[in-house]
Amino acid sequence: MAFELPKLDYAYDALEPYIDARTMEIHHTKHHAAYTANLNNALTGSGLEGKSIEEILSGVSKLSPAVRNNGGGFYNHNLFWKIMGPKGGGHPGGQLAAAIDKDFGSFEKFRTEFSAAAATRFGSGWAWLVKTPGGLKATSTPNQDNPLMALAEVKGTPILGIDVWEHAYYHKYQNRREDYLASYWSVVDWDVVSKRFERLKDKPNLLHI
Ligand code: MN3
Questions:
Q1: Sign of the CA dihedral 97, 100, 101, 103?
Q2: 3-class DSSP state for residue 2?
């Protein structure tokens, strides 16, 4: 069965004033829609039809650039929409808060490390909070790569991710990526992120969450 562009759980203007409605609409209906369509085209006749997106991405070093780029784009945006929302902001709680304190020292130190990963990613890419066998890590990847891919520098399951392609912020913030990064914390839905983390407890990486 072909992959489908997911519907958002909130309206395009729900993340205002941090992410503007026009950016959200174009990002979802044009960019994410194109990755989805191009992924389905690239998979036709590849022998990979019917596999989950996580299974496909974990083998991506052996696959075509079209599957790598569009499969990554499909998965990364699915995650991006899910972990944001109009009730965003604040702090994580429970097990995720404890794990962040243990692995980064504090929530503030985590934010600093994650923001630095996002700010210093040259050109287009993503920054991530990743669950790895060695604990939580902050990292970034180029283009539409992600930590599920065997070729990633830091491998694991992404818990949180921010799109730092210019299409994600240029309409509102122009070249001011750091202003966009600062606003991002007001739209992160920590309940969703915490649930992702808790579902991974004592489970192997690449769990379908
Ligand atoms: Mn994007």
A1: positive
A2: coil
Question: 92 near 104, Cβ under 8 Å?
Answer: no
Helix (H) or strand (E) holding 76: helix 65-82
CB 177 within 8 A of CB 169: yes
Please tell me the distance between residue 125's alpha carbon and the centre of ligand 1 in angstroms. 9
Write the Ramachandran bin of 163: left for phi over 0, alpha for psi from -120 to 50, otherwise beta.
Answer: beta
Please give the angle made by the CA atoms of 163, 168 and 172, to the nearest 5 degrees: 140
**Model-level pTM?**
0.95
Give the tens place of pLDDT for each residue, 19-29. Answer: 999 999 999 99
Instruction: Give me the mean pLDDT over the 33-37 stretch.
Output: 98
Residue 172 CA, ligand 1 centroid: distance in Å? 14
Q: pLDDT above 70 covers what percent of the chain?
A: 96
| CA 1 to ligand 1 center in whole angstroms | 24
Reported as a single tens digit per residue, the pLDDT across 4-15 is 999 999 999 999
